[in-house]
Design brief:
- It is a single chain.
- By secondary structure, the protein is of the alpha/beta class.
- The chain has 3 domains: 2-39, no CATH class; 61-369, Zn peptidases (Aminopeptidase, 3-Layer(aba) Sandwich), CATH 3.40.630.10; 375-444, no CATH class.
- It has 12 helices and 12 strands.
- A hairpin with a 4-residue loop joins strand 1 and strand 2.
- It is globular, with a radius of gyration of 22 Å.
- The chain binds zinc ion.
- Zinc ion binds at residues 123, 126, 268.
Length: 444
């Protein structure tokens, strides 16, 4: 983890590497709590019935899959559990896993609908990410009957949730190893704990272009033998390409049209950041201001820092650059929490509730993310009277608030809200019926 503002890097070293860095003149200090956590052997308490050993809030890979399959079985019109490919181990032997997406939408209501693709745990050790995505699915389906937002999202949008993007690697990480890559045995020796490819450096777009990945097979950012060489990556690419039509030209400086629908989201941990492209080059995209505005909005709910990927690191062949660069879809990364093995108390009390708000906002803005993020949120929606008899009139009250932006990395201009429209049982604002230049920014 690198904190560009505080100007320090948090790294895992062995004693030899520590001494080498001291010799080179780096100012070093030991992070005692994290070191202790790394050295503590894991034990399942007698009371723990499920989850990763010592971290009962996080479903294991089989438990995640069982939850998703159960949701699809319990809500056959609202959820579908789709096999989109095989992991490296399944492609090359008897063990291994399917790569699976939980699709959530009310199939009784026809589309086209705005789509969100949200993937998690592509880096195996990032425990909180898969659980956050799974809880998002549970929230939408558990609250479908009683919560207007959940119902509107499920009826009129499509959520495509890739809960375990790297299940082979994740099963290694669940034993306590700080495993990041997939488990490809052709790289760095078949039994090495440093084997595999970094799936988030293996995507085709600008693969290996810019010193944002490694050719060393044992490196944690090894990019793989060729672009999309890893079966997990080729499955994800194929699925995402089928979801989102190509909305952007091939030039680095081509813009996606402002009304391009859809959001691509890759959930990582940790560092408390919201990221947007580019990652391969320290240059802004042609949709920079819109992406930054949406990132500032997303970061408001979590109090995270919204920055371009290059503010963290140069990364080539990444998920986010692929989705925006190849398809023009508005693409973001979350770096949630403060630890790879985030403790369950802070996950339940902070990481989950705050990021759930960001995920709900992502779904709401997916109709036109480059435009809608600039406008206000409607908050405090309700009636002036809780009990309404047939024939009585009621007043709808709400506040349109245009100040919900993170101002951590620059200041977001806000606008005076001059009006609002209410729609009942209608998901789509009629863009053309608007008599103000700002109308298309009001609807959420
Ligand atoms: Zn990551």
């Amino acid at each position: 983890m690198i904190d560009p503002q505080q100007q320090y890097a948090l790294i895992k070293l062995n004693a030899f590497e520590y001494v080498e860095l001291v010799k080179l003149g780096f100012k070093m200090s030991l992070d005692r709590p994290r070191t202790e956590q790394l050295q503590t052997s894991r034990q399942r308490s007698p009371l723990q019935r499920a989850g990763i050993t010592g971290f009962e809030c996080y479903r294991t890979v089989p438990e995640t899959f069982a939850t998703a399959a159960q949701l699809a079985a319990d809500h056959p019109t609202l959820a579908e559990w789709i096999d989109i490919g095989d992991s490296w181990e399944k492609t090359n032997g008897a063990t291994g896993n399917d790569i699976q997406v939980l699709k959530i939408t009310n199939s009784a209501i026809s589309g086209p609908k705005p789509k969100v693709f949200a993937m998690s745990a592509v880096h195996a050790r990032e425990y909180a990410t898969a659980e956050l995505n799974t809880r998002f699915a549970l929230y939408l389906l558990d609250n479908y009957e009683t919560n207007a937002d959940a119902r509107w999202i499920v009826d009129h949008h499509e959520m495509h949730l890739l809960l375990q993007a790297n299940p082979d690697g994740r099963q290694q990480a669940e034993t306590g190893l700080l495993w990041r890559k997939n488990t490809n045995e052709n790289y760095c020796g078949p039994t090495s704990d440093s084997r595999g490819a970094d799936l988030n450096r293996n995507f085709e777009f600008q693969w290996g272009c810019c010193n944002g990945s490694s050719t060393n097979e044992c490196s944690n950012v090894y990019r793989g033998a060729s672009a999309a060489s890893e079966p997990e990556v080729s499955a994800i690419q194929d699925y995402v390409r089928a979801l989102f039509p190509d909305a952007r030209g091939d030039g680095i400086n081509d813009a996606a049209p402002d009304d391009t629908p859809g959001v691509f989201l890759d959930i990582h941990s940790f560092s408390e950041l919201v990221l947007y492209p580019w990652g391969f080059v320290n240059q802004t995209t042609a949709n920079h201001e819109s992406l930054r505005t949406m990132a500032r909005k997303l970061a408001f709910f979590t109090d995270y820092n919204p920055i371009q990927i290059t503010g963290l690191t140069i990364a080539d062949g990444s998920t986010i650059d692929f989705a925006y660069g190849e398809l023009g879809v508005a693409s973001f990364g979350f770096e949630v929490g403060t630890n790879f093995f985030q403790d369950c108390s802070s996950f339940e009390n902070t990481v989950l509730p705050r990021n759930l708000q960001s995920l709900l906002y992502t779904a709401k803005a997916a109709r036109a993310p480059y435009l809608l993020a600039d406008g206000p949120e409607v908050i405090g929606l309700g009636f002036d009277n809780n009990v309404v008899m047939p024939g009585m009139s009621v007043q709808l009250v709400a506040t349109a608030n245009d100040t919900q932006f993170s101002n951590t990395s620059g200041t977001q201009p806000t606008q005076i809200v001059v009006g609002a429209n209410a729609y009942i049982d209608t998901p789509l604002v009629a863009w053309g019926n608007c008599n103000s230049a700002y109308c298309n920014r009001w609807y959420l």
